[in-house]
Design brief:
Blueprint (H helix, E strand, L loop, with lengths): L1 H8 L1 H13 L1 H7 L1 E8 L10 E4 L4 H21 L6 E3 L7 H16 L6 E6 L3 H4 L2 H10 L4 H12 L2 E6 L2 E5 L11 H22 L4 E2 L4 E2 L1 E4 L2 E6 L2 H19 L9 E4 L17 E4 L2 E4 L5 H17 L11 H17 L9 H18 L10 H19 L2 H16 L1
Parallel strand pairs: 1-5, 3-9
Antiparallel strand pairs: 1-2, 4-10, 4-11, 5-6, 7-8, 9-10, 12-13
Helix pairs in contact: 1-2, 4-8, 4-9, 7-8, 9-10, 11-12, 13-14
Length: 417
């Protein structure tokens, strides 16, 4: 709102300021400096090679980042056509669940086809820190993208002075040619170029190893720096990822993070012929979703149940909230406990047994929140039944969680149709 008002009130000055920011090196040196912050990606005491940095932009930089990324993203969408055998996520109209649902579907289909399916996964190592920005810019120019747009994006990403402070010491990072401004939209667009080039260049090579879905084949899924392969057997799944790794290394100088390699074959498949570096297992974490080799959700539900109780006692069940209103408790229950499992509903196939357990869990929690009075005639069993009955009655009034699950499945079916 403030930015729009500033533009409407001082249009010429606003444009002049943006022009200076994106073209005048002397002005930018004087007024723009990025104060980088170092942090440990996986722990608070990381080794030197485990330190990452974030590069927060100024308010003016954020405006320019939005404008430039919007223009570049439109140009990329107009130029590239993603093959139908690949899921390319991390862009408008996509979500993490697209890849997770496809992974679940492949394993389910494999279980129905004499255990003929397999999923592989790998991450590109230090993706945004290692992006060859100059090389990507020259590549886009060769493809015919606007010289002015690419030059401006490159200036915006590579010219600002970056100051990194760590352990009481500060250093300036100058003359960069690799690594974008982590977290910026323009850096995201440059990373998108790497992904689009990968799928468009390798789709034909992946085709012989792809998983057959009947009316189409599915070979791979890309989500930012995560690469997944779908194949009828472990050797084919590994072959798809090997082709991807060779292309990333030869074209962009990027490599796969060794510890990120993963492989899960459908239950009943022997993985003894696969190199141990791919870490074959009976489950695979796909963008936060736990996919099992038998496509079952029972084991995952058993794990989630314990987490839901932890969420309950840390939120609506907290003793400090005992005197809160009933509406507040119910609202908090849905916003915390239900949210802790509802993100899985689009992928989970609806099962009556698990749905009944989910409703029973909701009833127990609501019964505890209802503060049912204990009568002198109540023993432990009768009081427990009374509280459970009160919780079930309340759940039917506010809405059963299984109904929410059922609705999410129907909505997801419309989404993928």
């Amino acid at each position: 709102m403030c930015i729009r008002d500033s533009y409407c009130a001082h249009e010429e000055q606003f444009r002049h300021c943006l022009q200076l920011f994106l073209s005048d090196s002397a002005w930018q040196r004087e007024h723009e400096s990025i104060q980088g912050r170092a942090y440990g990606k996986e722990s608070s005491h990381p080794p030197a090679n485990g330190v990452r940095c974030i590069l927060p932009m100024s308010a003016l930089g954020s405006i320019c980042d939005f404008v430039l990324s919007s223009m570049l993203d439109r140009a990329l969408e107009a130029h590239y056509r993603v093959p139908g055998s690949v899921i390319f996520g991390g862009r408008k109209g996509t979500q993490v669940a697209d890849v997770a649902w496809a992974s679940q579907l492949v394993i389910e289909k494999g279980c129905d086809s004499r255990s003929k399916s397999c999923i592989g996964s790998a991450d590109i190592e230090k993706f945004y820190d290692s992006l060859p920005m100059l090389q990507i810019g020259l590549y886009l120019l060769r493809l015919g993208f606007s010289n002015a747009l690419i030059a401006t994006c490159m200036f915006f990403q590579m010219f600002p002075c970056v100051n990194l402070s760590l352990l009481g010491h500060s250093v300036q990072v100058l003359s960069r040619s690799r690594g974008g401004l982590t977290g910026s939209r323009v850096a995201g667009c440059f990373g998108k170029v790497v992904g689009l080039d990968l799928v468009c260049s390798c789709a034909e090579q992946w085709a012989p190893f792809s998983f057959n879905l009947g009316n189409r084949v599915l070979s791979a899924a890309i989500w930012i720096d995560n690469v997944f392969s779908f194949a009828p057997d472990p050797v084919s799944a590994v072959s798809i990822l090997d082709i991807a790794e060779r292309h990333l290394n030869s074209r962009w100088g990027l490599k796969i993070k060794p510890s990120s390699r993963g492989l899960m074959a459908c239950k009943g498949i022997d993985c003894s012929d696969v190199d141990p570096k791919w870490n074959p297992a009976d489950f695979l974490i796909v963008l936060g979703h736990r996919i099992l080799n038998d496509a079952s959700i029972r084991r995952e539900w058993n794990l989630v149940k314990n987490k839901l109780w932890a969420i309950f006692w840390a939120n609506p069940g907290l003793s400090k909230l005992a005197g809160s209103t009933w509406d507040l408790k119910c609202s908090l229950l849905n916003r915390t406990v239900l949210a802790g499992v509802s993100w899985l509903f689009c992928r989970w196939p609806f099962q009556k047994g698990v749905a009944a357990e989910l409703d029973y869990l909701q009833s127990r929690m609501l019964g505890m929140l209802a503060r049912v009075p204990v009568l002198p005639s109540d023993d432990v069993v009768s009081f427990s039944k009374k509280r459970q009955h009160a919780g079930r009655k309340t759940a039917s009034i506010v809405g059963l969680w299984s109904d929410c699950w059922r609705q999410r499945v129907l909505e997801w079916d419309r989404h993928v149709a």
